[in-house]
Amino acid sequence: MTPERLREIERLFHEARERPAAERDAFLTRACAHDSALRREVESLLAQPPAGVIDAPVGALVAGLVSPASALLTGRRLGVFEVHGLLGVGGMGEVYRATDTRLGREVAIKILPRAFNDDPARLLRFQREARLLASLNHPHIGAIYGLEDAGDVTALVMELVEGEDLSQKIEGLRAKGSGLPLDEALPIARQIAEALEAAHEQGVVHRDLKPANIKVRTDGTVKVLDFGLAKAVDPTGSSPGLTTSPTLSLATQAGVLLGTAAYMPPEQAKGKTVDKRADLWSFGCVLFEMLTGRRPFEGETISDVLARIIEREPDWTALPAKTPRSIRTLLRRCLEKDPRRRLDSAAVARLEIEEASISPTTGDVPPNEVHRGAAWRSRALVAVAVLAAAVVAVGIWAVTRPAQTPPGPVSRFAITLPPPLPVAFSINDRDVALSADGTRLVYAAGDQAHLMVRALDQLDAVPLPGIANARAPFLSPDGRWIGFFERLDEGVTTGPVTQRTALRKVSVSGGAPLVVCTTTGASRGASWSPDDSIIFATSDPATGLLRVPAGGGDAEVLTKPDTDRGERDHYFPSVLPDGRGVLFTITSHGLGNREVAVLDLKTGRRKTLIRSGSQAEYIDTGHLIYADGGTLWAVRFDLSTLNVVGDAAPIVDQVLTLGAADFTLSRRGTLVYVPTRTEKARSLAWVTRNGVAEPISAPPNAYVVPRLSPDGTRVALQIRTGDQNSADIWTWDFDREQLTRLTFGPAAHFGPVWTPAGRQVIFGSRYEKTLALHRRAADGTGQDEQLLEGPRQQRANAVSPDGARLVFENETETAGYDLMLLSLTGTPHVEPLLQTPFDERNASLSPDGRWIAYDSNESGQSQIYVRPFPNVANARYQISTGGGRTPLWSPTGHELFFHNRMSMMAATVQLTPGFSAGTPRKLFDASSLVLDGRFTTNGGTYRTYDVSRDGQRFLMIRENAGAGDGAAPVSMIVVQNWFEELKAKLAAGK
Questions:
Q1: Model confidence over 566-589: pLDDT tens digits?
Q2: Do residue 187 and residue 330 come from a single domain?
Q3: Which of the following is catalytic: 165, 208, 226, 279?
C-alpha cells in the first residue's frame, strides 16, 4: 500500500470516527463514492482500530514518526525504567507503561519523535521547557518526572494516570445526542479550572487543552495532561500553522503537536501569539462539549472548522434547559472571539462553577425555542411580576432599611525602612505600588534594588528571592502578579535608549520571574489592564505607549510623540477601570513641561485633559489624582465622556518628586506616598580620606551643591528656598563665617561654578519655560550677565584654567545630554564637545586643562571616562569598573575622585607624558552624607562634594537626623480610608 493510500485511509478514518454513528454512513457514501475498496478499508479500521492509531495525527504513521500497533520498546530498559507495553500513540510519539525500579512506581514513558535527536538545538529548548513544566505540582495536573536520554531514544517520564480520558466519556454519549449530566460535568470542569489556575499562576499555558488531554479516574479525580508541551515541542515558539485535519492535531512540521483545530481560539487559528486566554477559550469548548455531547464549532474540513471559530457563534440552543444561568454566562465569556473581552482568569471560572454547584439557578430558555406568542406573553407576565415585586420591595426597604454602615475612620502611619534597605529611588519612575485591594505594598529597596512585598497588616516586608535590579513595580488587577522592569542606570530624564531592557512579571508569592517582552530604553511606567494586557512606556522617544499581552509576546505601539507639537515622549500610562481608555503623560522639550492626556482605546483618538500635570490615576470617587510641583491634585472626571469636569484642587503637599512623583493608590481608598525629604536639617562638613567628619559652623540649611573657590576661602552653594524646584545661589565665607545670598527669585538658580580667578560665579537658571546660563560677580555687586538661553536645560560643569571656555551639559532633542563648549571671551559662541547617543554629564577638567573626566551611561551603567581636552576624539580611557558618577580631579592632578553608590572612590592617575590610571580604590562609605546627587533639585545628577586644595579633605553635605533627636527619616506615609479625607477637603474647598 502506498503512503498516499495509507494517508487517505487514516484521514477518512479519523474524520468518520469524530462523527456521530448515525452520520458515518452518509459521510462515507459521499467521501468514497468512486472507491468502494477505500470504504471497506476505512470501515475495517472503524470496526477494530489497531492500538495507537486512534490518537495518531494524520500522516504521522506514513512519515515514520511512530510505529503502528507495534511495541518497539517492550521489554527494553531505559535507565532505571523497565518498559512493559505500548499504551498508545500520540502526536509527539509512542507512550509506554513502565516501572521505575528505583522508586517502585508505575510511570508513563513518552518517546519523543526522532526529529528531536536529530536537532540538538531543538532538544535543548525542549529540555528547558520541560524543566519549567516539571515545577508544576498540583493534584489535577499530570506530573512530569524527568527526561531520559538512551542514545537513540529521548523519553519524557510522566505520571501514569489510569482511567479513561474525557473524549472517551463524551464519545459514549455523543451517539445518543446528549452530554454528561450536570452533576457530573460541573465537578470535572471545576477540577480542570483548578489545574489551569495553578499553571497560569506559574506562567505556564497549556495551549492544547482538549478532552483527549483530560483523564478522569474511576474515583472522579481529574488529571490534565501534556501541560505546556505544545510550546515545548514547537521548534520556533511561533503560533501553530494549519494542515487539513478538522479535528485532530495540527502540525507545522512532522510530528509536532501544536494545537487542535476544534478547540483553538480565533487568535490561534489566525497564527497569532497566544496567552492564558487561549486556555480559557479551550476550557469553554470542553465545557460546552461536556454539556451537549457536541463541539461548539464543527465542520467537514479544517477550513470549515476554522471559519466557524472565526465567524460564527456556537449553537447556544444545544445547551440543556437546566443549565444554570451563571454557567451560560461563563461559557459566553470564555468563547468571546475578542481576547480582550474574554474571561482571563481560571480562578473566576472555578468560582462560578463552585457557585453553580452549590445553588444552581436554571438558565433562561433560549428565545428561538419558544413560540413568538408564548415568548411575548411570558415576557409580559415576567415584567408585571418584576414591577409588582419592585413596588413591594421599595415599600419594605423604606420601612426596614438598616442604617448605612459609615466608612472607617481615616488613619495614617509612617513606614520607616532600615538603613540597609532604603527605597531604591529610580528618579524617572514611581518606586512604590499598591495592590487594588490595598492590602499589599510593593517597592524596590537597597543598592541592589531587591523587590520587596509588605502586607500592610504585617510589620516587615519580605524580599522576593532571587530578584534584584528591579524598578517601576506594578500589580495585576487581581493582585497575584507583580510586573517590573530591569533597572537601567540612567540620568535625570533619559535612559540609554539604545540599550535593551526586559519587562518581567513574578508571582506575588515568589518564584522565577518570567519575561513578558524586551524593549528599547528604560522604563517610564506601566499599567496592567483588565483585559490582561500591559500598557507601558519607555525612554525611547521613537515610541510612546506600548501594549503587550501579560502572558508574553510582541509589543504593539499605541502612540507616538507628535514632534510637530513639540512632544518629546509619552510616559506613565494608567488604564481606566473599564479598560476603554488609558491616561498618560505627554512630556515636551524644556524642563517641567508635562500634560495629562487620555487615549481612547476604541477609537485611537487622544486629547489633552490637564495642561500642567503628570501621572494621573482614576479613583472610584470619580476623580483624577495627578501630580504637579510636588503636590497631588484632584479634579472630577467623567468616565463616559473622558472629560475633566470643573477645576482642580490641591490635596496632598510635599510628595517626593524626582522626575516622577512617588505615590500610589488602591481602588479601596488607601494612599501611600514618599514625603519630600526635610533638607533644612542638612549641614556642611569637612570629611577626611578615611571618612571622619568635622562640622563646619555654617547654619543648617537645604544645601544641595557646594563648590569651593579657587583659593579655598569661600564656597558657592545651591540652597533650596521653597519647593523642590526653587533654589538660589549663596556663598559661605570660612573666615568671616558669613552666609551671603548671591541670586534672588523669581527664577530658580542652580549648579554654581567658579571662574579661575574666583571673581565670578557661573550658574544655570530656569524661569517658567526659559532656561539660561548666567554669570555674576562673586561679591554680589552688579547685575547678572546672561551667557546663553534656550528651551532645554543647560548646566555649567567646569571652566578651563585659562578662563576662556565653559564646559556645560546640554539637553538634546531626544532627551539625552551632550557636552558643549561656550566661549567666555568676546561674543559668546557654542560648539559641540562630545555628542553621542548616550548621556555625557558632570565634566571635570584636569588642573593643567589637558584632560576631561566625565560620566556616561554608554555601557548601560554609569561609568567614569577620561579623554584629551579639547580634542576628545583622540583617545578614551575608562576609569571605573563597577559603576561611577560625578568625577573630580585632585588639585594636585595625581588623583581622580568619584562616587559609586554610597562610597567615595579614588584612582591614581598620571597626566604626563601620556595619560594612565590605576585601579580605583574605596576611600570610605558615606551613609550619612549626601553623596548621590541624583536626588537634588530638578532631579539632577549633580556632584555634591568638592575637595580641598591639598586633596586631603572633602567638603560634603551631611544629613542630620530629625530635629536632633536621632530619629530615622520617614520613608513612606500610609493613609487608609483616604477617600473620606479627600471628600472632606474637596467639600471644604467649595
A1: 888 999 999 998 888 999 999 886
A2: yes
A3: 208
